[in-house]
Amino acid sequence: MSTTTLTPTPTDSVPVKAAPGGEGRIGLRANLRHISALVRRNLLQIKKDPESMFDVLLMPIVFTLLFVYVFGGSVGGSLGGDRQDYLNYLVPGLMAMMGMNIASAVGTGVNDDFRKGVMDRFRTMPIARSSVLIAKIVVELGRMLVAIVILLAMGFALGMELGTSVGGLLEAIVLAGVFGAAIMWIFILLGLSMKTAQSVQGVGFLVLMPLQFGSSIFAPTQTMPGWLQTFTDYNPLSNLADAVRGLMMGGPVAHSVWITLAWAVGITVVVAPLAVSKFRKRT
After folding, report:
1. What is the pLDDT of residues 54-93, one digit of tens each?
2. What is the 3-state secondary structure (H, E, C) of 262-273?
3. Listed residue (127, 64, 92) closest to 279, CA to CA
4. 184, 152, 158: which is closest to 170 by C-alpha?
């Protein structure tokens, strides 16, 4: 996965000195202004390094073609249909997966920024510590949106049919973004806790693989062993995939949507303060 990094320049308008009275005196308006400036920095870095967008541009295409044409016939048959039915099943599931894969890049990027001294520079500035991390999440959400748009374009090009409405599709995108933002806090904390970017990638891989393949993203869970079905029932990615699928293709969604939102809120409330605290204390 590619990452985005921030490189401070001498042209920064923010003076490099400790904020008088500490971070607590920074108001909401100033905090939003800091986040906006840091988001712009990240976007400029992407502009300078367009290769950092390769994963966003290619991942949706590769995954869609791979699973539809390699597994679509057999899995589609288990759904009582064909490859076309599997396409309608798969694309909403892949929307749920995009946030997880892109979130892993956030942790790697944060770790790499500390290694290069970028974060040490930011911590000397009179800005809220949380604004540095929130800005990263905002930019990665933008990258996630680009990936979802490409995924949907690929799905519709292959013949995917929307079973509900454009409103349902937009709600599915928002839900995937909300959950993706929550997961990014986990990987930010991981990036702040591990010593190297390689270790972040390794641990992230070990976390992502069981969650993604032990879910309803790629295949129905009814044919899985009983113990694995129990795991998928409590897997938040299964609830997210089912919710997105229901919003796009029709079917009951209320339970899956509320469970997904509960997971997102719970993860953010617990992990975000830990990540900000770790960011302050890391040396």
Report:
1. 888 898 999 999 988 888 777 777 776 778 888 999 999 9
2. HHHHHHHHHHHH
3. 127
4. 152
Helix axis angle, 83-116 to 129-157, nearest 10° = 150
d(CA 240, CA 222): 17
- Tokens for 129? 């510590």
pLDDT score for 25: 61
In sequence order, what are the residues at sequence separation of 6 or more whose Cβ sits closer than 8 angstroms to the Cβ of residue 219? 71, 75, 78
Q: How far apart are CA 203 and CA 24, in angstroms?
A: 34
Name, in order, each residue with C-beta under 8 angstroms of 221's C-beta and a sequence gap of 6 or more: 215, 228, 229, 232, 233, 238
The model's pTM: 0.83
**Each residue's pLDDT tens digit, 91-140:** 999 998 887 888 888 888 888 877 877 777 777 777 777 888 888 899 99
- Give the separation between CA 264 and CA 67, rounded to whole angstroms: 27
